[in-house]
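Incident log, structure service

09:12 report received: a user says their structure output differs between two submissions of the same chain.
09:20 pulled the input from the user's history:
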Amino acid sequence: MIDRLRNFHKYLEMRAEELADRPCLTDGERPGVCFSYAQLNEKVNQTAAFLSCIGIRKGDRFSTLMRNCPEFFLLYLASMKMGSLIMPLIAGLPVDELVATVEMFQVKALFVDAEHCERALAAKERAGKTLRGVFCVRPPVGIEVQDFASALSSVSDVTVSFDHIRMDDPGSLYFSSGTTGDPKGIPQSPKNLLTAAYALAKAYGFREDDTQMGILPVYHTALATYGFWPSLCIGSNFVLFQRFHRHTFWRNLAEHRIAFVEAVPTILMMLLNSPEDISQYDLTALKFIGSGSAPLPKDLQLRFEDTFGVLVANKYGLSETAPTHFNPPERHRRKTGSIGKPLPMCEVKIFGENDKELAPGEIGEIVIRGDNVVSGYYNNPKSAAEAFRGGWFHTGDMGYVDEDGFFFLMSRKKEMINRGGEKIYPNEVDNVLFSHPSVAEAAAFGVPDDVYGEEVMACVKLKNGYTITERELAAHCLTRLPLYKCPKRIYFVDEIPKTASGKLLRSKLAKRF
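09:34 re-ran on a clean worker, output below:
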């Protein structure tokens, strides 16, 4: 079906006709704010007309600096229709970095919420003439700024032609998390996203009346690729919350009769470390919780399921590929600790040296190809030539596939520790440390060593109220790991640095220690 449609405008028009009055996007923070499929398409067309009026054309960049709100998806989907590039920026971005981003990418407009209004206006004062305006969703009182809703309503009669836009024209520009180097711009097209979304929706096995919930930030691809896009393909309702609220998480699931919500391991940890009696909530609609964006420790998954009686499905994907692997939530169907099997829309292999395919059980680099994979990096031919070579996208993630076709993730390629010729994968050490009942979070990393080349170190964050010595934790490691894989030192820290998507920043720990 994707190949039969000229562009994303035709696709959304089709969904609006097919589903019409069915709820599509609901604001979980503001009662009564809900867009049907027909209303959403109408608003997206209006947003595209507004963007066109302020000079946004195919390939032009505009940015969002905001928490989750339905207005983000109006801009996001309008950009998909227009072939412009929406650049979602991390909430709380300092003014200096905001100015640098605006100037580097020649951002033509900034769309912000009340929280970020002042810093956006400050950036506009310092940025060049490329930035044509700042538009605020529900502006704060006392600040003179253009109101997004008012600006939108002023162009209600303007129409835009989308005939020159194709399904494989990029509509968004996200950035890699930069765990091992500088972030890279990733231009995603509707074809990339819909290809993955239909495959993931089929794996979920949901129906139109299975409501989804969104809590991950709009500036990370997971909110859209694991939640919104599959919801759009299924024809269900997507309930969007401003952010993850630990104290209202279970209540929100019950009140909105949620079938699925995508989370990250950090969220699962936070819920587990402050357990709530959820028997007071009707969670019969909840089928499972998804976990992606960062490795899911086996012990965390099992402890969460045993504590709350809620299944967790592990998944894998990158901004360059959208979701590619799904491990079913049911214990009899899955292999706990695996990222699952590849979705059928893509081909996945394990490559070793000289890009040769390895046999099952052998550890190498995960490589992917398919219509879900983006065409390259934005204005970065050197990095693109390295990563997108030989017709495959080289993920930089190390892993293996077993005889049954289940894939297992070991670590980022650049994070692998080489101790005297022995290859040590940090995730393996993390999982052992995390299996101790006193440990809330753990991160292993390598540091230079005069004798072995590199030595294993680790940082640990303890659960509230728990105490343990470094010697006791080291002894625990020895029960599950050979001596050469055990951390030489274990440091206790208050926080372990992570990216916005929850990935561990081991490089920061390596520099610090």
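09:41 both user submissions now match this output. Likely a transient worker issue. Closing.
09:42 reviewer note: The radius of gyration is 23 Å. The chain has 15 helices and 26 strands.
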